Amino acid sequence: MKIVSVCAIPVDLPLPHPMEWATGRMTSQAHVLVRVMTDEGVEGIAEAIPRENIYGETQVGMVHVINDLLAPLVAGLDPFDVEKVHEAMAFIKGNLAAKGGIDVALWDIMGKACGLPCHKLLGGYRDSIEPSRILWLTSDEVMVDQARELNAKGYRAFKVKGGLDPDADIRRVHALRRAVTSDTRLYIDGNQSYTYFGAKKVHDALRGELDYFEEPIAATNEKDRVRLAHAIDIPIAGDESNFTLHDIAHQIDIDALSIMMIKIPRSGFTYGRKIAALCEAYHRPMMIGSQSESSLGMATLVHIGCALKTISYPCEFMDFDDPAAPSLVNERIRMENGRVYPPEGPGLGVTLNEDAVERYTVRG
């Protein structure tokens, strides 16, 4: 089996509600659909996600990189030879999310060719995962109402976006803790926006209410990151400091983080597994982070979350159960009794809705 074509298609999916955090705001998912075709007619698909303010990759740039730079490098290679594919793509520096999209599409091909779902190919450790939902920056009242509604649907973990105002974050988490069930986990994502003293203040004020932190302090401020990790009694999870295998090795070396987060849009499945092996060797638990995926990308998250033994924290999801959320695929993610299950079928287990692809494709 050989790769005969790689095609990147820019899409723009309007969000039912805006998403706002300390360093940005989104009203639509300006993402890239990746389609990889083989000479045997097996096609792999993936959702590649550019974030210019995080990875430096734009939608226009990603389409160019995939179609004009990476596609010629991987043409003619066997999709099962993922290490060879990554070696070929390494000629183009950076562009983690573009390469991650191609990688996931290759695993989709492998699953379809073998008649197995990706989570079985990748490790097959569990059949479902516990989900977490993101509470975006908004008024306290709206955030509390959202948490109550999601709690009633079975969610028992919430990421609370914060980082701009420690006092407001303290007030917000107090309100949320009173509103949700006692078995619900709450954690704040500072998006690197706290000072050391701001993060310490939030921790001390929320002692017993906050279960863990995510990236409270800038990745470049290593001295204060390590200082905070040793000054508080809850784990700190990484994200913006966890881009590559080498980044994670460094964070382990300086002892700045207790929980390692992977985001499949920037690692793909192949490097996601390597990161998991590193974390297992150093006894670091992991979680799967969301990059604001649509249903196609969320299917990817479920598969890797079910596959890896090291995943021991709830995995982040978007509102896949919102019928107003646009989707590029025909299938919806299934949640039962507080657990999320991977789509059935080989590969990613989802099929493209070609009408939706046509509708949301960015032209010109």
UniProtKB/TrEMBL annotation:
Is Signal included in the keywords of this UniProt record?
A: no
What cofactor does this chain's UniProt record say it requires?
Answer: Mg(2+)
Q: Which PANTHER family match?
A: D-GALACTONATE DEHYDRATASE-RELATED, ENOLASE SUPERFAMILY MEMBER DDB_G0284701
Name the InterPro entries on file.
Answer: DgoD-like, Enolase-like_C_sf, Enolase-like_N, Enolase_C-like, Mandelate_racemase_C, Mandelate_racemase_N_dom
A Gene Ontology molecular function term for this protein is:
magnesium ion binding
The Gene Ontology biological process terms listed for this entry are:
peptide metabolic process
Occurrences of domain Mandelate racemase/muconate lactonizing enzyme C-terminal (ranges): 140-235
Please state what the protein is called. Answer: Mandelate racemase/muconate lactonizing enzyme C-terminal domain-containing protein
Ordered alphabetically, the record's keywords are:
Magnesium, Metal-binding
- SUPFAM superfamilies xrefs: Enolase C-terminal domain-like (SSF51604), Enolase N-terminal domain-like (SSF54826)
UniProt record similarity statement:
Belongs to the mandelate racemase/muconate lactonizing enzyme family.
